[in-house]
Amino acid sequence: MRTSIATVCLSGTLEEKMRACAAAGFDGIEIFEQDLIVSPHSPEEIRGLAAELDLSLDLFQPFRDFEGVTEELLLENLYRAEAKFALMNRLGIDTMLVCSNVATATVDDDDVAASQLRRMGEVAAGYGIRLAYEALAWGKYVNDFEHAQRIVDLADHPNVGTCLDSFHILSRGADPAGIEKIPAEKIFFVQLADAPELSLDVLSWSRHYRVFPGEGAFDLTGFMTHLVRSGYNGPVSLEVFNDVFRQTAEERTAVDAMRSLIWLEERTSVALADHGGAPGNDGGFPAYPMELATLPAVAQPTGFNFAEVKAGDSGAVEELLFQLGLHCEGRHRTKPVQLWSAGGARVIINQQQARGLAPAVSALGLDVQDPLAAASRAVQLKAQPVSRRSQADEAVLQAVSAPDSTEIFLCEATGDGTVAWAEEFGSDGVVEGEPLITHIDHINLSQPWQHFDEAVLFYESTLSLVPRASQEVPSPMGLVRSQVMCSSDGAVRLALNIAPMGLEQPHGGADYPQHVAFACRDVVALARQARQRGLDFLPVPANYYEDLQARFRLGDDMLDVLQSLNLLYDRDEDGEFLHFYTATVGNVFFEVVERRARYDGYGAPNAPVRLASQYQRARSGRRDG
Amino acid sequence: MRTSIATVCLSGTLEEKMRACAAAGFDGIEIFEQDLIVSPHSPEEIRGLAAELDLSLDLFQPFRDFEGVTEELLLENLYRAEAKFALMNRLGIDTMLVCSNVATATVDDDDVAASQLRRMGEVAAGYGIRLAYEALAWGKYVNDFEHAQRIVDLADHPNVGTCLDSFHILSRGADPAGIEKIPAEKIFFVQLADAPELSLDVLSWSRHYRVFPGEGAFDLTGFMTHLVRSGYNGPVSLEVFNDVFRQTAEERTAVDAMRSLIWLEERTSVALADHGGAPGNDGGFPAYPMELATLPAVAQPTGFNFAEVKAGDSGAVEELLFQLGLHCEGRHRTKPVQLWSAGGARVIINQQQARGLAPAVSALGLDVQDPLAAASRAVQLKAQPVSRRSQADEAVLQAVSAPDSTEIFLCEATGDGTVAWAEEFGSDGVVEGEPLITHIDHINLSQPWQHFDEAVLFYESTLSLVPRASQEVPSPMGLVRSQVMCSSDGAVRLALNIAPMGLEQPHGGADYPQHVAFACRDVVALARQARQRGLDFLPVPANYYEDLQARFRLGDDMLDVLQSLNLLYDRDEDGEFLHFYTATVGNVFFEVVERRARYDGYGAPNAPVRLASQYQRARSGRRDG
């Protein structure tokens, strides 16, 4: 599949955008006219830069408000078009996007529109240029792709064809199956965009909230299967207007974009095979001209192998882990790294190159069937491999960097609770006895607001984690958006949070801390033990327990137990949830959870209590300090 | 009018919110239950704090999902309600908001809902508590206020009344005139919120995008006139869920909120008088129980008196002004301040307490009929007065601080082009001859994103400037939102811009610069003169002129003139617009504009060209530097 992207998706100057697209591996680009107009570079210089970067210039866009007009206006429009054709010749671009008329159309007549497009096609032919006519979802008279196709058919000119844009088609709820009826040679261009479910007017939705395929709610795999079946084999290009991308570094947006296309290729390939027809298939099924790349298939991760906390001074973290009942298994034989564990929960404390760093979650390990295949898949999906120096006799771990820079290690699942690398700490990673803590339940990672959609796409495409419904939780500094990414059996749960900016908070506003939650078979017993060991619990206000009583009518005994241990409680139709939080050290804290029956949530009603208590603590800490 | 505000409108802890409300002058507050639950303070402590701050506690809210349920669930709900009544007694709050059932209602029967509310009322009566039943716009069976009122009537209990919320009523397009039919003694509470026009699902609209009255598109004055006519005389309270307010310093949000209520009181008073019935009117019209405060009426400003640039080193600004043909009239007799002018355009360069400051627009002066009345009005609307030290024999200028800290001076309009204060510079402020520059056309002020709605409300309420339709302009760092505030005759034009955050721009991203635009009778002549004087024009790319030719078919001569002088051009059905920009120094630049015929815009199609050129310059400046 030939990949392309519109320059309007990215921030920066035209030159910066082009360099970012080339670096991310795109085959070509669409030049958004405005990007050229504001550029100090001549068309010839842009053409030269594209050649140097090995980028094809696939489309010049958009040409607006052409057809369905009076003869007088048509002549003006033809003058304007011809100036652009001459410009395109200088750029070396042979296809122009012509959007259905939004503003100036006054003649609602397909024959008139077609004859005007034919006249445009005749002029274009003189310059060797093809016109790709696209129905905008808010076009005045022409707003669906089948209508646009009828006009293209009526125009009946070899230089007039169609441009299909998934946003304009899917946002109107149209059935993309009709794409298969369009002759492939009349599909001059294809643009893809996804979008979240929003009941917003379609113009605002389109201009601000488009996202890359896989980041929204549209069925782009379905769209692509129809496109492949139509026989189309031209560029598949991203055209995504998004307020966040416009403000984000263009290099990383381009990588995010490329990842989305690669993943879409794979899913399209799988969908076609499922429906009995893969490209190049020899078994009697039709072979399609478009070749689709595939990726190593990997199973979902089966558990957390470890969590890593990086810290300059790790004393406070060690104390918390000790109080929670974890045990230091040993120190790495060559590095300033410790392994702490309890049951199947392992925490690595890493002091390498950490001088002055406040404690923070820096890495996590996932158990996977085939670490090499999983890492290869992630890297093909444009994840950055992580290089950590290791000695010749040490376990070689596969790792990639997530969008928020957390390192994701892909570890071999042994099935027996041992971990191969633990021997470097003089341990087999298995703890005697029956510790109260059984494993890591979930890890909570805060995300910069600009990279949230990118992070969700990353975890879904590389690791096959599935996004659950997202939630918003009030805090004293604003709403915190929370998105859980989960393996199907719940063995791996990552909670991604976007913290509010709190830019003008009078009291500062520390980074939103991250945390590791341990699963526990008896949280009351563990909390008592932790209290004996002097744990600094996150305090829970008395008003919370009064409300709990009003909501759940718990017995007085139970309420006293909860309150005396700063335990939080939730209940739903699936079961009960008891949990507590430690104080925050640096940028990290810990949680211990007990899930009763089939409770599958995270105590969301309690999150505001935690956030307010942490806010109070941060304030008084700053006030005292 | 008794003013109140829900604690959910503000950021911070409950204690911080209460202090901010008291400081802004509110009579009372609604306690949002969640704010109490997460507070470490007991109900008795909150009650004590309210007494200390002289705030009444007007409402406890919300109680959810009560009515329209099975008998079994009703008993649970009554248990939950009674726990809250006991809590309210401890707080000393006598009114509870009961929202129509969203989640658990299964019985769509008004008689059942009414009888269940009556039973709740009977229990509430034992605690001396009144229930204010409110139809949520997304209530399962009850979602309009007239329906809720029918249920209240059926319930027929003295402790069961209604709560009216302007958002829930106006967002559904309901006619608020029906409010007048409700007996005043059954209206237990009133909540106000405004909202922008958005085609968004009503729940998201309500939870994220509510704004204070006057900041949105709802007709809250109409709503209030119906309310006053109903005879209601209880608290009028703000309940505004807004993602920005949640992140903004609570003290300033509270002031913004209070301003909106004061202005609404005035407009309601005017509207009632216009319709022949003012409260307390003796002329035979009905007198209403609610007393509405009024403000000094002021006419719109009639022009710019001056713009002030503050700078540590003012050499570069002086050079630009000289090159544009302004003339230094003199230095202030006691302060390091200069007056520059041309025609009716005056620029003050202020070096007081400016050591190390990059040049920036710091103040502007407006010509008004009655400076004292205008300043008094602004201060009553919670604007901060500005105190500048002045000598006994200097003109006393009235000034207030705008939300972005720009100082707004209210100057006496003389009508003859002189300004009283100019004599302190040894000048009468009148320039001989016929300079090309005639006056200040507009001033462009960048706004922090958190204060945009506040700024619009500020300029509209204090100075009677009118907001024009807002626009969004693409820049290499994201979309810039632009909102012009204008006097009716166009003599005063302020353009407010919110710059994108560009948080992660690889190339940094300076503050979005502000500018002063001078009106000119011959921009070509002025540009030529400026070129002779060595002006550093903001460069305009050649590609722009090619596009201009394609769009407007200008003559080659004209195009050459424009291009040789870096002039930008626009044309619409009202006329033509020619303008150019200077280089940016510090955080300020200048523009010169010529309006031909009745052109009334700002060359919006050219704004992306300016932004891209400034971005290029800032980049290369940083690269070179």
UniProtKB/TrEMBL annotation, chains A, B:
PANTHER family from the xrefs? HYDROXYPYRUVATE ISOMERASE (PTHR12110), XYLOSE ISOMERASE-LIKE TIM BARREL DOMAIN-CONTAINING PROTEIN (PTHR12110:SF21)
What residues does the VOC domain cover? 439-583
Q: Pathway, per Swiss-Prot/TrEMBL?
A: Aromatic compound metabolism; 3,4-dihydroxybenzoate biosynthesis
Which co-factors does it depend on? a divalent metal cation
The family annotation for this protein states: Belongs to the bacterial two-domain DSD family.
Entry annotated with the keyword Lyase: yes
- GO molecular-function terms, A-Z: isomerase activity
**Chain residues that bind Mg(2+):** H442, H515, E591
Q: Which residues bind a divalent metal cation?
A: E134, D165, Q191, E239
Q: Which reaction does it catalyse?
A: 3-dehydroshikimate = 3,4-dihydroxybenzoate + H2O
UniProt keyword terms in alphabetical order:
Carbohydrate metabolism, Isomerase, Lyase, Metal-binding
Q: Tell me which InterPro entries the record gives.
A: DSD, Glyas_Bleomycin-R_OHBP_Dase, IolE/XylAMocC-like, VOC_core, Xyl_isomerase-like_sf, Xyl_isomerase-like_TIM-brl
Residue ranges annotated as coiled coil are none
Chain's role: Catalyzes the conversion of 3-dehydroshikimate to protocatechuate (3,4-dihydroxybenzoate), a common intermediate of quinate and shikimate degradation pathways.
What is the name of this protein? 3-dehydroshikimate dehydratase
- Please name the source species: Arthrobacter gengyunqii
| Tagged with keyword Acetylation | no
Give the EC number(s) under which this enzyme is classified. Answer: 4.2.1.118
EC class of this enzyme?
A: lyase
